[in-house]
From TrEMBL, chains A, B, C, D:
InterPro entries: Csp_YhjQ (IPR005560), YHJQ-like (IPR044543). It comes from Oceanobacillus jordanicus. This is Four-helix bundle copper-binding protein.
Amino acid sequence: MSHEQHKELIQSLHECAVACNHCYDACLKEEDIKMMAECIRLDRECADICSYLEHALSRNTPFVSELASVCAKICEACGNECKKHDHEHCQKCAEACFKCAEACKNVA
Amino acid sequence: MSHEQHKELIQSLHECAVACNHCYDACLKEEDIKMMAECIRLDRECADICSYLEHALSRNTPFVSELASVCAKICEACGNECKKHDHEHCQKCAEACFKCAEACKNVA
Amino acid sequence: MSHEQHKELIQSLHECAVACNHCYDACLKEEDIKMMAECIRLDRECADICSYLEHALSRNTPFVSELASVCAKICEACGNECKKHDHEHCQKCAEACFKCAEACKNVA
Amino acid sequence: MSHEQHKELIQSLHECAVACNHCYDACLKEEDIKMMAECIRLDRECADICSYLEHALSRNTPFVSELASVCAKICEACGNECKKHDHEHCQKCAEACFKCAEACKNVA
């Protein structure tokens, strides 16, 4: 049963999507929003692909490795951007992104 | 912080989406698939809207009550269809749907 | 055939989603991004729901009126924000949003 | 401007998503639904990724080639399944899938 098999990955994707969406929301409220533009953009990209893959895994998609490989790449790009910023939401998001990227690579 | 405030609802939506997607996958593998056509259709509708709302809540959407109200309605429709079928995946899905519908109504 | 029946609405949703996503991208590149924060947020909300409904209509969702009613509301909110800004991408986006809101209301 | 640059691809993705969703809906109504199970599953996979990529291109995603490469693969898998079936909706869907796969490969 795919969604059992991928239980941990589904959880990492869920946590990463939530962290990215929270970081996106928090960035939009920051005073220094100009500095956060790339972070806002990548937060959305990353939240969207994590949510997509979480959803796809739970319906037993036949395209696990292809999708996980793209997702890993997007998680890393988002984590690399987020870790540049000192805001707590960015640091937490970077952590969730790197953890999720690793989990994706394991099935890619 | 919206995603903290809605933590329980986000969890219910996540569990409902996973249950619906699993039921969808399992229905597609059933011998009596003809009987499951409406279940397959509603599983997808319900998984998609739950995943959407989970995602929207975690980015602090300004449209919580409108989206939760539609989601509650779709969860109920899916739960009502699933509970007609004896398959374990359908019974579990119905339970997740009704629980999620209640959680949605609380914020709608 | 639902996707034939709703052909014009599907087209309006498609155009609105593209306009909102383009406006989102362009806002993220503006010098005065601080002023555009709410526009960025609503562009994403509106693009996401339009894309969702377009997709749902083309698969003959049983929840046309409920979804179209939420979508109309989000399109209006996004259109109202966008029309405050003089950027061409905002003005074009506002136009697409109001046109789409009307099309949604016709089926809601 | 990304959405201008990718105008034709966005159109192919849109048409493919609509064709897949229509085929999915029609398959669920077929008498011989048992034979259509794989077609239903792949129609959803393909509609979802095409809709995702259409959306991502229109917001100027930095991950065009990675996403287009996965999308091409899913379009081909769906086209190959659909072309096995004589139903008009399957034949039309196969055609849209192969056309979209080609368009994706051009940017992958």
